[in-house]
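Entry 0007
Protein: TonB-dependent receptor
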Amino acid sequence: MLAPGSGSPAASAESESGPREDAQAQAGDETPRGDATVSAPEVNGAEPKPAPESSSASRTTVVRGKTPPPPESPERRDPTGAITVIDAREHAGEARDTAELLAGSVGLSVQDSGGYGQSKSLVVRGAAANGVLVFLDGIPLNGAGGMADLSQIPAALVERFEVLRGGAGARYGSGGLGGAVNIITRAPGSHLRASGEVTYGSWDTMLGHVAATGPLLEGQALLLVHAGRSDGDFAYDVDELPAIDDNPLTSQVRARNDARGGGGLLRYRRRLSGGSRLDALAELSLENRAIPGTVQNPQSSGRQELGRLSLGLRWSGLLGDVGQGSARGFFRRDGLEVRGELPGAGGAQRYSVGGVELEGRRALGDMQSLTVTVATSGEGVTEAQDAQSASWWRASVMAMDELRFLGGRLNVVPSLRVERVGPYWLLAPKLGTSVSLGRGFGVRANVGQSHRAPSFLELYIRQGTLLPNPGLKPERALYADAAVSWSSAARTEEEPVWSVTAGGFGALYENLIAYELYPPLLARPYNFDAARVWGMELEGEAHPLPWLSASASYTWLRTQNRYGDPRFFNMDLPYRPRQKWVGRVRAGPDWLNARTEVLYQSSQLVNRTGSRSLPSRTMLSAGASSTFLHGPDVTLSVEVKNLLDVRAYDFTGFPLPGRAVYATLAVAVDRDASSAAVPSASEEPHASPH
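Output (structure tokens):
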């Protein structure tokens, strides 16, 4: 998402989104803690008018005091959307990468090339990876090819994820066919704290980071440096004669699957006069990885060098008596170079994007508020090989009206974005509604339209054997979803918390872009694909005791290819498993706790004709952590992934790692907050309620 910013259970942990923590401090931070993944319908079904004290029990609900939610919090960016908040801090010590943290969320599946540092992307509600927007504190991460690679975002940077499932065009622009994900980085603190973590495990994998935060230049700063490496030479099973039934599998070792990388994060925050705030971010990522290829087409040479520099600056605060506002500027520079005897290798590619966004929100009486966003950006890509280059400009205007009826229990939220992306005009309307039925029950529903403009690579840049097509049209999605939710009320952290959400969704994708063979060895993209997608999402979580939590989610996804060719018509789309189930239990106090998680994913096709598929898989993980020393805090964690040693494949035939064991040691030295030189977030001036 484009920098939503609430949903964290910790009142002291400020997010990139804006002044949320003061409301939590005033309300006593009664948001209950527990497992990491929760659904936002509890937010939408709860009382929409801010109460003078805590307003709901769900961990995703902002505990509202006298300050309204920040302009980019999930319930403000999309008040009726299907939103999941994943708190990465509650997975501390689990030796998981960014993709693994997201994989357990309902409605999402990960396309994994296997092992540390190898490419990983998201499929949300059946939309391809290039139809899912990914942001880092509001900075767009989708590259020139339209896809964001999660392997380039180390988990050490992440405080939490905010996931919007369903069309995101109205609020977040071109590319949001299936949804949007905002990755919220770790926030600076108001008192001195230093921490470090090192992980070592299977296949000579080593990960580590050090971080320091505290007051600086009348504000707060955070510096984090990270690095990692892995040989990635795990064993996998292969059928060397797939045409023969019952052919025995042979075990091989994945070769040339190594990766190494590192980078850093610098954040600075300062309170300004009048209660406004200035946030600055600089992030650098460097990675070098081998290109092993698939099992059917292994590569004996070839490496990728990847780099990213992200810069962001944001002001947020009150606009006098007019309302709330924010202004953001960002810049990102990506580098990609492929070396070795591979098609398209030898040319360095550079992609740059930068822009500004202005947003204002004004209350029109007690039961209505209007939000307007104006954004503009420019982007360009250059390919050293053949001296290719392309650039364009985009601009958009978005308006969202929030209407509240029946004493605030019924919300009706129409929104509309008009966008110009290069040569394309795009229109993304949306109508959402949410109803609080009382006794913890709520209902929400949405209907709308989203688009994805063709990427630079699809339009202008030749990539090896892939030819561009400047005549492509934007992809389009017509979507609808609805859900009912129930959550129990909790007034203290010791009181049990229960929540259940059940919903359905559907989408029609038109003008989908797919590649067609262009003899003898080339391929070119065309708009000749269409698809229908529908499904069901179920979520539940329980916190019966302060030291015990459990959660489960189930996704059923049905896809149909609507292209007229009889070879493909009504077939499932490739790489879209029909079912996914995730269950998780965590028990124990901080000094010794244990956890277990099981993830089941059904079989999935790997081509449009249905002649090849990948089998279903069940992944079981278990771990334990102990904070056995305080002052400094020292925590030792052990994690066993894929406990049953399942030999599985993903995406176009990439084997996944088998059983792996990791040990993590974390140390934190925390100075007493009372000795800090700057005021905490809870001391900033109060704002007027809605």
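Curator remark: The mean pLDDT is 83. The chain has six helices and 36 strands.
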